[in-house]
C-alpha cells in the first residue's frame, strides 16, 4: 500500500508482476525483486501474489480488457490458449542467442509455440520417485524391480503400501504412458491415444493399483502425502512442490522414475515449465523485458535455489558446487532429461477430464483398457468438434 | 404536461389505482379505451423523432461504407508499392498514402538453433534505413510475423485504427485504416437521446401504446442495421422498445413515487445492488447463451447451443439424475426435519435447547467443508463409513465405482446438510398451532396419528410450501456436493445440470455459450416448477382457509 502511494507520488514507471508463489518460493522472488528495485534508474517492480487457482482465470479475464499485470508467472501449458487469444506477447523480438543459451534447451523449447518465444523460463517441474530410506535402501531401477520390491513392502491388512501416487490422473499416469512408447497427441497435433503402448501402460497401472497391487485405492494428493510421511508407503511419485510437505525426520531420497522393463525406456513424466510471461497489454514492453531478463538471470536463479530449493532452468546453476551437493535438486535435474513437455495446446485442456476417467475406470474399477480408451477418445473428439465449429 | 396524471388522480381514489395496476392485463385495454385528446406537440415530437432516427441511420450507413472503401483502397496501394518497389530498393511510396508504413523485407534467415530467432524479420522504414529494434517496431514486427504465417494479419491499435499486413513476394504490404472519428459515434448518442425523448414525449402525449411501440421498434431496428458495430449494439437497441414499455408501465409508479419518495429512497441502495449483482449478470448470461466462444472471440449462433443441448441424450440422462436427486433430497429433508421437530417439541425431552443447537450445527458449517469431510468418510480404505461397515462384519463398499453407491453418498451428504433448515421451519410453524385444537381433538377421541394427519400436517402446509420450493431450488443447483463428494464419478454419471454446465465452461474447451445456455435452461425449468408449485399451493391454501 505504502509502496503504491510512493510510486504514485514519485510518478516512477512501474512494472507489475503477478505470481502465485507461496512460502519459500514467494520469499525468493521477493528477494530477487528487491535486488532489482535496489538498482538505480530502473522502473519499479511491484509483485502481487494471486492464489494459484484464481490466477489463470484472472489473466484470461483481465488482460483482454486492458487490465492486469505487465508480467506474470505461470506454467507453459497455457501459452497456446493465451497466444491464440492475444493475451500474451511474443518476445523473440527482444531475445537473442545469448539470452536463450542461458537456459536448459528443453525449457526454452517448451515455451516455443507457433514459431515464437512466449516467455523466459524460471523453473521446471516434473515428478520423480521419492523413497523412504528407512524402508528402502536403494530405489528400484526398473518397473519389474519396482513391482517386486513394492509387493514385499505391501501389506494391505495393516495399511502399508509399496508405492503411492495419484494413480487415477493422467498427469501422473503419463510417465508410464510415455515409458511404454505411447502418447496422447502426436507431434503434428493429431489425437493418437488408442494404441498398443497406451493399452499396455494402462494394464501396467492396473497391475500397480488394482487388486493385489502395491498402490492403495482412491488416492488423493493429501492422502498419498500423509501415507508417505507416516512411513506407511515406501515410495511416492511426486514433484518438487512436495519437498516442502515432507515431515521433518522422514529420511527420504529422490531418484528418477524407473525404466519400463517391457520397453527398456525410462518412464517419462510430464514437464511443466514455470515461466515469466509478458502481457500483450504491458505498458512498457521494453522495461518489462528487462525485468524478465533480470528475474531469469543466473544470479537470480542461484538466489532462488538457495532460498527455495527451486529447480531452476538456468544451465550455469548446475555447475555450481552449492547446487551439485544437493541430491534432491540433482535428481530432478536428471529426471528432466526424461521428461516430456506438457502439450501447450487448447486441445490438451479438453483431454484431461475424459482421460482421467479412463485411467480411473481401468485402475480403480477394473475396466478394460481398450474400451476405456475408446470411450475417452470418442468424448474428446466430440469436445474438439464442439470447440472447432 | 402534468395535467393528465393529476386528472387521473382526481378521478379515482388511490386504492382502486393500485388494484388496476395489479391486474396488468386489464390495464392495457384500459388505456386504449380512454381516448385521450391528441396532443399536437406530442404528435410533432413523434414525427420529429422518427425523422431524426432515419437520418441518423442513413448517416451511419454512409459512414460505414466510406470507411470500408478507404481501407480497401489503402491496402491495394500498399500492396502495389510492396511488390513493385523491389527493384534497386528505391521506395516507390505514394506520398499521398500515409497509411503505408514500411516494407518488411525478408532478410536472410539468421543462422540460429532457435526457430523463433530464425524467423525474426528486420524491418525497413520508408523514411530511413534504420533497422527496427524499438518497442514501436515490435508490434509491427509481430504483425508481419503473424502475416507471414497465416497469410494476413490484422491488429487493433490502441487508438482504434486497424493495421493490416499481407505478405507479397519479397515484402509485406501494410495498411493502416484510421479509426472511425469519435464524432461519428455522435449520431448513435443522438439516436439514443432522441429515442428516450420521443418515448417520454409520446407518453405525455398519450398516443396509443401499440402504435408507439411499433414505431419505436422499427426505428430501433433501422439503427441496429446501420450501426458499424451492429452486432454489438443490436441487443442494446433492441432492448429500447422494452425499456419504453417499462417506462409506459411505470407511469403509475412514477405518480406513486412522488407520494412515497422516502420509501423508495430507502429501497434504492438494495435495488442498485440487485441490478448490478443479479439482474445485469442474469441478462448477460441469457444473451451469452446465443453466442459461441472460441479463443476469446464470441460469435452469434442463434439457438444452436440450445439445439445442441436438447438433441444430446446426455442432457436428458443428466436431467433425470437431477430430478431424482432433487425429489429424493427434499423428501428426506422434509421428513427428517419434521420428525425431529415433532420430537423436539415434546415437553418431556430434557436439554431440548442443547439438542436443537446440535441439530442446527450441520447447517452452520460451510457446506464445502462438510462435503469434503463426508468425502473423506466415504473413502474405501480409510473412510469412517467403511471402517464401521467392516466392524459390523459387512464388506467394504467402493463408494464411487458405480452410480448407485456414488449417488447414495451424495444424497447422504446433502441430507445431512439439508434437514436442519426444514427442522427449523417446522419448529417455528409448530409453535404457531394452538394447543386447544389438539385438546379439542383429544376430547373428540382422535388418535395421535389422526391428529397428525388431520391437524398438524394441514396447518404446517402454508409454512412448509415455500420452504419446500426454496429447498428444491437449492438442491437442484447444489453444485458443491456433487462437485466435491462424487466429483461426477463414475465417468460423469452422477453429474447434475449445474455441474455439467460448469464442465462445459471450464473443462471442455471453454464453451461459455453452451454453459450459459445450460444456465438458461436450468432457470426455465425452475421457473416452470415454481409457477406450477405456487399455483398448487394457492389452490390447496384456498381449500383449507
The largest sheet of chain A, given as strand count, sense and whether it forms a barrel, is: 6 strands, mixed
Strand fraction of chain B equals under 5%
The percent range for strand residues of chain A is 15-25%
> In sequence order, what are the helices and strands of chain B, one letter per element?
HHHHHHEEEHHHHEEHHHHHHHHHHH
Secondary structure category of chain B: mainly alpha
| Low-pLDDT sequence parts of chain A | none
Distance between the termini of chain A: 47 Å
Rg measurement of chain B, Å: 34 Å
Structure write-up:
The complex is a heterodimer of chains A (389) and B (545). By secondary structure, chain A is α/β, with parallel strands linked by helices. Chain A is built from 17 helices and 14 strands. Helix content of chain A is 43%, strand content 16%. In chain A, the strands form 4 sheets. In chain A, strands 1, 2, 3, 6, 13 and 14 form a 6-stranded mixed beta sheet that branches. Chain A has a 4-stranded mixed beta sheet with strand order 8-9-7-10. In chain A, strand 1 (14-19), helix 2 and strand 2 (44-49) form a beta-alpha-beta unit. In chain A, helix 2 (23-37) runs antiparallel to helix 12 (298-308), helix 8 crosses helix 9 (196-209) and helix 9 (196-209) packs across helix 16. The mean pLDDT of chain A is 90. Chain B is flat and about 105 Å long. Chain B starts with a helix and ends with a helix. Helices cover 70% and strands 4% of the residues of chain B. Chain B has 21 helices and 5 strands.
Outline of the structure:
The complex is a heterodimer of chains A (389) and B (545). By secondary structure, chain A is α/β, with parallel strands linked by helices.
Topology record:
The complex is a heterodimer of chains A (389) and B (545).
Chain A: H1 2-10, E1 14-19, H2 23-37, E2 44-49, H3 52-62, E3 71-75, H4 79-84, H5 97-101, H6 105-110, E4 112-113, E5 116-117, E6 120-125, E7 128-132, H7 143-153, E8 161-164, H8 170-179, H9 196-209, H10 221-229, E9 233-238, E10 252-255, E11 259-260, E12 265-266, E13 270-278, H11 285-295, H12 298-308, H13 321-324, H14 327-336, E14 340-341, H15 346-349, H16 352-365, H17 369-387
Parallel strand pairs in A: 1-2, 1-3, 8-9, 13-14
Antiparallel strand pairs in A: 3-13, 4-5, 6-13, 7-9, 7-10, 11-12
Helix pairs in contact in A: 2-12, 8-9, 9-16, 16-17
Chain B: H1 3-11, H2 14-22, H3 24-33, H4 40-84, H5 115-118, H6 135-150, E1 153-156, E2 162-167, E3 172-177, H7 186-205, H8 209-226, H9 230-259, H10 261-288, E4 291-294, E5 297-300, H11 304-311, H12 313-345, H13 352-364, H14 367-377, H15 384-391, H16 403-431, H17 435-443, H18 448-476, H19 479-486, H20 497-506, H21 512-544
Antiparallel strand pairs in B: 1-2, 2-3, 4-5
Helix pairs in contact in B: 4-7, 4-8, 7-8, 7-9, 8-9, 10-21, 11-21, 12-16, 12-18, 13-16, 14-16, 14-19, 16-18, 16-19, 18-21, 20-21
Amino acid at each position: 500500500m505504502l509502496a503504491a502511494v510512493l510510486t504514485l507520488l514519485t510518478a516512477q514507471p512501474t512494472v507489475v508482476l503477478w505470481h502465485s508463489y507461496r512460502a519459500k518460493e514467494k520469499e525468493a522472488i521477493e528477494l530477487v525483486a528487491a535486488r532489482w528495485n535496489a538498482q538505480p534508474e530502473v522502473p519499479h517492480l511491484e509483485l502481487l501474489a494471486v492464489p494459484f487457482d484464481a490466477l489463470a482465470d484472472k489473466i484470461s479475464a483481465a488482460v483482454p480488457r486492458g487490465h492486469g499485470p505487465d508480467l506474470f508467472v505461470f506454467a507453459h501449458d497455457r501459452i497456446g490458449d493465451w497466444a491464440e487469444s492475444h493475451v500474451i506477447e511474443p518476445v523473440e523480438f527482444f531475445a537473442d542467442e545469448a539470452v536463450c543459451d542461458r537456459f536448459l534447451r528443453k525449457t526454452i523449447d517448451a515455451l516455443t509455440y507457433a514459431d515464437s518465444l512466449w516467455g523466459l523460463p524460471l523453473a521446471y517441474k516434473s515428478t520423480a520417485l521419492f523413497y523412504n530410506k528407512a524402508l528402502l535402501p536403494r530405489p528400484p531401477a526398473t518397473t519389474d524391480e519396482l513391482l517386486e520390491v513394492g509387493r514385499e513392502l505391501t501389506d494391505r491388512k495393516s495399511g502399508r503400501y509399496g508405492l503411492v501416487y495419484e494413480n487415477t490422473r493422467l498427469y501422473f499416469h503419463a510417465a508410464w504412458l510415455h515409458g511404454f512408447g505411447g502418447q496422447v497427441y502426436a507431434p503434428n497435433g493429431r489425437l493418437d491415444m488408442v494404441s498398443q503402448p497406451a493399452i499396455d501402460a494402462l494394464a501396467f497401472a492396473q497391475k500397480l493399483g488394482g487388486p493385489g497391487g502395491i498402490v492403495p485405492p482412491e488416492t488423493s494428493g493429501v492422502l498419498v502425502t500423509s501415507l508417505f510421511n507416516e512411513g506407511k508407503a515406501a515410495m511416492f511419485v511426486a514433484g518438487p512442490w512436495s519437498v516442502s510437505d515432507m515431515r521433518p525426520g522422514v529420511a527420504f531420497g529422490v531418484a528418477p522414475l524407473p525404466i519400463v522393463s517391457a520397453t527398456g525406456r525410462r518412464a517419462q513424466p510430464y514437464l511443466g515449465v514455470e515461466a515469466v510471461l509478458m502481457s500483450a497489454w504491458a505498458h512498457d514492453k521494453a522495461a518489462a523485458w528487462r525485468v524478465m531478463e533480470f528475474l531469469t538471470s543466473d544470479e537470480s536463479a542461484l538466489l532462488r535455489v538457495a532460498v527455495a530449493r527451486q529447480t531452476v532452468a538456468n544451465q550455469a546453476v548446475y555447475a555450481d558446487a552449492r547446487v551439485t551437493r544437493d541430491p534432491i535438486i540433482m535428481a530432478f535435474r536428471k529426471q528432466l532429461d526424461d521428461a516430456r513437455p506438457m502439450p501447450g495446446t487448447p486441445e490438451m485442456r479438453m483431454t484431461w477430464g475424459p482421460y482421467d476417467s479412463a485411467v480411473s475406470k481401468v485402475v480403480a474399477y477394473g475396466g478394460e483398457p481398450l474400451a476405456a480408451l475408446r470411450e475417452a477418445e470418442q468424448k474428446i473428439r466430440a469436445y474438439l468438434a464442439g470447440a472447432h465449429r | 404536461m402534468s395535467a393528465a396524471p393529476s386528472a387521473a388522480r382526481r378521478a379515482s381514489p388511490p386504492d382502486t389505482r393500485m388494484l388496476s395496476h395489479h391486474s396488468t392485463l386489464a390495464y392495457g385495454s384500459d388505456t386504449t379505451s380512454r381516448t385521450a385528446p391528441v396532443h399536437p406537440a406530442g404528435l410533432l415530437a413523434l414525427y420529429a423523432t422518427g425523422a431524426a432516427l432515419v437520418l441518423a441511420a442513413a448517416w451511419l450507413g454512409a459512414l460505414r461504407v466510406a470507411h470500408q472503401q478507404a481501407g480497401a483502397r489503402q491496402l491495394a496501394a500498399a500492396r502495389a508499392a510492396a511488390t513493385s518497389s523491389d527493384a534497386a530498393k528505391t521506395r516507390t511510396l505514394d506520398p499521398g498514402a500515409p497509411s503505408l508504413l514500411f516494407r518488411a523485407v525478408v532478410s536472410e534467415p539468421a543462422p540460429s538453433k532457435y526457430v523463433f530467432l530464425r524467423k525474426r524479420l528486420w524491418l525497413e522504414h520508408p523514411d530511413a534505413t534504420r533497422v527496427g529494434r524499438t518497442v514501436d517496431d515490435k508490434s509491427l514486427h509481430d504483425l508481419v510475423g503473424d502475416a507471414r504465417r497465416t497469410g494476413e494479419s490484422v491488429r487493433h491499435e490502441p487508438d482504434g485504427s486497424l493495421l493490416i499486413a499481407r505478405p507479397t513476394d519479397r515484402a509485406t504490404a501494410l495498411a493502416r485504416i484510421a479509426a472511425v472519428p469519435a464524432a461519428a459515434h455522435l449520431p448513435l448518442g443522438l439516436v439514443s437521446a432522441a429515442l428516450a425523448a420521443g418515448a417520454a414525449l409520446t407518453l405525455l402525449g398519450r398516443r396509443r401504446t401499440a402504435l408507439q411501440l411499433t414505431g419505436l421498434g422499427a426505428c430501433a431496428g433501422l439503427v441496429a442495421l446501420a450501426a458499424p458495430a451492429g452486432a454489438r449494439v443490436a441487443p442494446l437497441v433492441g432492448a429500447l422498445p422494452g425499456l419504453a414499455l417499462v417506462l409506459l408501465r411505470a407511469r403509475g409508479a412514477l405518480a406513486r413515487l412522488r407520494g412515497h419518495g422516502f420509501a423508495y429512497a430507502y429501497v434504492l441502495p438494495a435495488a442498485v445492488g440487485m441490478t448490478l449483482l443479479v439482474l445485469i449478470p442474469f441478462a448477460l448470461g441469457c444473451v451469452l447463451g446465443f453466442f459461441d466462444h472460441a479463443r476469446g472471440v464470441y460469435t452469434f449462433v442463434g439457438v444452436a447451443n440450445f439445439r445442441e443441448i436438447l438433441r444430446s441424450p446426455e442432457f436428458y440422462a443428466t436431467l433425470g439424475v437431477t430430478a431424482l436427486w432433487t425429489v429424493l433430497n427434499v423428501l428426506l429433508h422434509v421428513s427428517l426435519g419434521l420428525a425431529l421437530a415433532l420430537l423436539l417439541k415434546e415437553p418431556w425431552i430434557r436439554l431440548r435447547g442443547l439438542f436443537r443447537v446440535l441439530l442446527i450445527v450441520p447447517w452452520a458449517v460451510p457446506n464445502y467443508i462438510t462435503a469434503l469431510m463426508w468425502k473423506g468418510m466415504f473413502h474405501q480404505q480409510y473412510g469412517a463409513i467403511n471402517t464401521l461397515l467392516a466392524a459390523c462384519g459387512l464388506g467394504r463398499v467402493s463408494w464411487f465405482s458405480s452410480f448407485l453407491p456414488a449417488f447414495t453418498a451424495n444424497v447422504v451428504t446433502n441430507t445431512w446438510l439439508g434437514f436442519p433448515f426444514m427442522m427449523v421451519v417446522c419448529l417455528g410453524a409448530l409453535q404457531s398451532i394452538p394447543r386447544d385444537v389438539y385438546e379439542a381433538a383429544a376430547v373428540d377421541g382422535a388418535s395421535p396419528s389422526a391428529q397428525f394427519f388431520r391437524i398438524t400436517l394441514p396447518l404446517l402446509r402454508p409454512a412448509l410450501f415455500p420452504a419446500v420450493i426454496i429447498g428444491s431450488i437449492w438442491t437442484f443447483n447444489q453444485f458443491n456436493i456433487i462437485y466435491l463428494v462424487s466429483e461426477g464419478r463414475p465417468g460423469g454419471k452422477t453429474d447434475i445440470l449445474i455441474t455439467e454446465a460448469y464442465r462445459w465452461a471450464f473443462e471442455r474447451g471453454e464453451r461459455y455459450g453452451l454453459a450459459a445456455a445450460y444456465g438458461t435452461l436450468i432457470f426455465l425449468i425452475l421457473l416452470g416448477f415454481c409457477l406450477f408449485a405456487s399455483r398448487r399451493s394457492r389452490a390447496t391454501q384456498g381449500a383449507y382457509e
